[in-house]
Amino acid sequence: MQKTTQTLIKQSQGPFFMPLGGAGEIGANFYLYGSNGYWIAVDCGQGFINNTSGDPLVLIPDIRAAKVNGITIQAILITHGHEDHIGALPYLWKKLRCPVYASPFATELIASRIKDSRLLSQLHTIKALNAYTFGPFNVEWIPVTHSIPEAHGLFIKVAGRTLYHTGDWKLDPEPVLGRTTATKRLKAIGEQGVDVVIGDSTNAPKTGHSKSEGSVQSALLDIIRPLPNRVIVTCFASNLARIYSLGKIAQQTNRHLSLLGPSMQRILGIGRKLNYLKDFPEQVQPQELGYLPRNEQLIICTGSQGEPRAALARLAEGRHQFLELEAGDHIIFSSQTIPGNEVAVARLTEQLAARNIQILTDKDGLTHASGHPAQDEIRQLYEWLRPKHLLAMHGENYHQQAHCSFATSLDINARSARDGELYDLSAAPKLIDAIEIPLIQLENH
After folding, report:
1. Does position 233 have pLDDT exceeding 90, yes or no?
2. Which of 172, 251, 314, 372 fits a disulfide with 320 by CB distance 3.0 to 4.6 angstroms?
3. Among the CATH numbers 3.40.50.10710, 3.40.50.620, 3.40.50.1370, 3.90.1210.10, which is that of 213-360?
């Protein structure tokens, strides 16, 4: 940054916005807001790329750009507990040395990854719809539905401006677990007036409305009920609602439930601790599966993205310590392939097909619902909030540009943000500086 810019962001109330991850790619979400030299960060996530073996490589934001330009982050505010929003904390928190604020579910997820008691002492649990003060910032966590419990948008008041950072969200009337979106509060915020929305762009190119998690539960029941042999469902470990739905389906189809993968067991334990799984069935231990008839087994496992160390990859290769797949077993992919993972997933499905495993995907029925809004939901949110301006983030360039085009059709002034760009939000978002800021690849994480 230029020296004049450094002076400006130290002395002016702004507010200012600077993404260091998540604007121009999917993942590694890390967004900075500043006013009068005081800076907060929203989320601290990791991203992934795959090498030729399909083994995911971890990417994290580069915080040196902030330090070099005199930006000291005073607090980190977490919108929800997905890895692309909290996964960089174990690597960056010890360098940032500032308090972290998150919902109970996200707090438990973070604490399960952090071993340093000094860092854990700086982890604080928030209550939704309560206002919190961070220097010149007044911040309120607004409940929204997403593919994990306790997702939030952030309503931010600072320097006479009102901002709404959407986080990851959708409008789901039947989320299976957790609260529905706080529509009354969003409408009330809109009546006050919102100057700038900083908005999730992941599904902005898609018309219509995203599917409900409740609809996925019903569809999966219809798919699984007639299947004659062992059923294995792979999904994101963090999707506790999907795991809960599959537990109910196991009960309804008279199958014994088992979970494979340590990350899935970790999420299940947190869900139980926070009373999200009161009527969830007891699971059969993996080492006991061999004693049960195939047609009485429903197994949930990690590995939907083709990760070579995950449970599904080991099953596909015949090297799982407790379970051997048999011809005629069924694998259901209850997930969407993340861009960049196509080669790894294709390799995995080829291995399964070679073993005569029957593969079912979203082409065979409603096996998955995105946690992000399509255009009908974006339109609805903006009708509630009535924003004057949009800064599109959380997506690749294609997603963000589509978001801008759609917002413009709604008479909202819109532009797309990129990592390393610094915006003045005191009026219409104005780009005042930009630096090259590539993500950092972790070695031997």
Report:
1. yes
2. 314
3. 3.40.50.10710
